[in-house]
Amino acid sequence: MSVPDKDWNDWHWQLKNRLISLEQIEQRLFLIPDERRGLMFAAKEKLAFSLTPYFFNLIDPFNPDCPLRRQVIPRAEELVSMPYEMMDPCGEDKDMVAPGLVHRYPDRVLFLVTDRCATYCRYCTRSRIVSGVGSQKLEIDDKLTFDYLKKHTEIRDVLISGGDPLLLSDGRLEKILRQLREIDHIEIIRIGTRVPIFLPQRITESLCKVLKAYHPLWINIHSNHPKELTLEAKTALEKLADTGIPLGNQSVLLKGINDDPQTMLELVNKLVRCRVRPYYLYQCDLIQGTHHFRVPIRRGLEIMQKLRGFTTGFAVPQYVVDGPGGGGKIPLNPDYVMGYYEDKVLLRNYEGKIYSYPMDQQAKGEENEDRQSEAGMGKYK
Description:
Largest sheet: 10 strands, mixed
Radius of gyration: 23 Å
InterPro entries: Aldolase_TIM, LAM_C_dom, Lys_aminomutase/Glu_NH3_mut, Lysine_aminomutase, rSAM, rSAM_sf
Strand order of the largest sheet: 1-2-3-4-5-6-7-8-9-10
EC number: 5.4.3.2
Enzyme class: isomerase
Cofactor: [4Fe-4S] cluster; pyridoxal 5'-phosphate
Number of domains: 2
Structural class: alpha/beta
CATH architecture of the largest domain: Alpha-Beta Barrel
Strand content: 15-25%
Number of helices: 14
Distance between the termini: 80 Å
Number of strands: 13
Family: Belongs to the radical SAM superfamily. KamA family.
CATH superfamily of the largest domain: Aldolase class I
């Protein structure tokens, strides 16, 4: 079907014409049986199916292992849960202090403003509330939320997420940003979004004008594979960067999609060319029905080892795992310290070569004091 450029470049048209059913997708895509069952059952019981025409055009219609296709087309595997998987793997519900407001860390909160996305990632951490078919519904109450934010003066950083906040109208988004900026102790506003990847047409001049009025404002996008960073996505990201917004990227480590060093290296380098700094590489959360996406942590560390030293330092993301049940982000790093000795520390560089770093007398004395102090803390007094 031929679509006029005016329509194709209109984000409202893209949303209105999303593929949302088995009947629509099977007319355009050769489906394997597992995908067909996924669209019949997982998309109705676990997480809805939705795919923008723009992103659909990036998918290989004949290859079920296409890394973009794997992320967005449901599979029957989603209906199988492992004993260790959870509905709420990050423990957000227990830290929800007002409808849609999660306060876990001392000085920052997560503000969920919508349960809808342009396209739904099949490994979504919030599948219990996102898309409208999960087991829970997202409740939103601006009065309760902003009363809590005003009362708790320790909060200096608000992360707006969902769903995808950039699906909100300019007016609704502007109202939220204005209300946050009216609270004196809130210093930083962040937005988490995958819109520049799934729906780059949404990054309009009017949206950028709204965002620019509320600095300091930061945006983290979500890109998992270099094929997602098209010319359209790059243009959208450059618009945001030109608005003065620092951009970061959060990837999820996914089996068969980006779990090899070369793909990850290509991704981070391409992100930097799009003026986006790689921020986090997440170990896939223990959300129910995602076992087929999960990569062993050991493999993740191997990939990180192939990034450090092989690309620009600020292109290397921090590999993290969310402590199951609400432990927060735990950084994971390859072990570059080989051993501590009386007069030196042995270190391994990115090439595997060993180097000796001397420990001076003052440092040794301080280290001994620390060890004695730690030992004393364990004694009964």
